[in-house]
Amino acid sequence: MSFELQRKELMATQNFISGAWQNAQSGATFPVNNPATGVPVAQVPNSDETEAKAAVEAAAQAFVTWRATPAKQRATIIKRWNDLIMANAEDLGKIISSEQGKPLAEAIGEIAYAASYVEWFAEEATRANGDIIPAPVRGRKMSAYKEPVGIVAAITPWNFPAAMIARKIAPALAAGCTVVCKPAAETPLTALALVKLAEEAGVPAGVLNIVITASSKVVADVWLEDARVRKITFTGSTPVGKHLAHESSRTLKKLALELGGNAPFIVFDDADLEAAVEGLMVAKFRNGGQTCVCPNRIYVQSKVYGTFLEKLTARVAALVVGPASDPASQIGPMINAKAIAKIEEHVSDAVKRGARVLTGGQRLFTDQRAESTYYAPTVLADVDRSSQCLHEETFGPIAPITPFDTEEQVIEMANDSPFGLASYFYTNDMRRVHRVVDALECGIVGVNEGALAAEAAPFGGVKDSGYGREGSVHGLDEYMHIKYVCQGGLD
Ligand code: SIN
């Protein structure tokens, strides 16, 4: 590993099941590679059905006592977890950078972002209030309680290896659920380090179990089949989300699916162009463009099109691409060869359909490594509507820009997508703000703002971007069901 940790024990490389760190029973392992170099940073268990089942057994046993633990006590443990995450932010950031590639400052920023969810849900744990319902007849008392749904299976992605774990596991624990978790095979080390700190914070044995595997389907299939698993929370691709929804229907599990996005970013001609460029830089190039809420289709009104392109190109051309360890780096490597191949395919398809490359448009550092996973931040102008990059998430540092003439036309273009996660628009016309917010088909809207996510806000999409919300008061309800109690004979 290229980074030295202050606490070396945070580099955990085993499963954590029923309070014990353990290898896969089969002894199988697989490497976790640094995406910048392709060099393995650790060897982790390639778990199978045996570990998937053991995790559910542990979670089922622990549920009995965890659900009965007073909310304030659960909150204290989760708050301690938050404090430990913040106290070890630098080490955790280094672990993220080693396996995911994002620049260290950004990785440490992700830790603070992750911790904000843990802290939020520690506080929300004590506020899972129910209702007292005025009875429609005499002699009755009616109420509604919130109860934990049961065992939660959390399946998390590689792009935010800490934040996605935090915003799924913290509310589950706060609600009184127990958890079985499978992080992405690309980035299990961050998840394991977080679990290590959860153990240190006093999360009891069996309440949080983590199973590492490169055979996701094998583990997920066990959890899908087991009726004791009452909820699946997943962030990842739409095809996998649909598969989980389909397969979990046999046991009617509750689902939260945070799936693909294909966010439009609209700049109207009355917008503050400096602010719009700034907002686009933040939203588009965060995590090298490997973010579900990244703008993937940028529409700029004709009157300001040329000026906007000029300002944006200057900013994008100045971005520094490099390894996570270099403090100057703003964009790291892409996660793997498949990711970079998709970016190349999208750029060449757009160019074939008439797009102009204003900056970028190629891999970097191929002289140092033929399979380099670094891609130059790119601006594509005059991108035709039929281009692949406007229909599928590129998940890379590519800003494809298309001009438009009228508000009506751009709303039609923005909504012409099966996805509906985030949308952004810039305007200074207050009437337009309300019209456009109402018209956009999505779960999250940024109005004159490029940085949207926050622990207090509901994050999630509509249409093929999935359902369920993470963060906010709604994020806790996702892990609870309502029990209605009607007591009669009181008159
Ligand atoms: C994601 O890309 O799935 C999450 C992005 C965010 O939390 O802002």
TrEMBL record:
EC number of this enzyme: 1.2.1.16
Domain Aldehyde dehydrogenase: 21-485
Active site: 258
Listed InterPro entries: Ald_DH/histidinol_DH, Ald_DH_C, Ald_DH_CS_CYS, Ald_DH_CS_GLU, Ald_DH_N, Aldehyde_DH_dom, Aldehyde_DH_Superfamily
GO biological process: gamma-aminobutyric acid catabolic process
Transmembrane segments: none
Gene3D superfamilies named in the record: Aldehyde Dehydrogenase, Chain A, domain 1, Aldehyde Dehydrogenase, Chain A, domain 2
Range of residues in the leader sequence: none
Alphabetical keyword list: NADP, Oxidoreductase
Keyword Cell membrane: no
GO molecular function terms noted in the UniProt entry: succinate-semialdehyde dehydrogenase (NAD+) activity
SUPFAM superfamilies cross-referenced by the UniProt entry: ALDH-like
Top-rank EC class of the record's enzyme: oxidoreductase
Family statement: Belongs to the aldehyde dehydrogenase family.
Name of the protein in its database record: Succinate-semialdehyde dehydrogenase
This protein's encoding gene: gabD
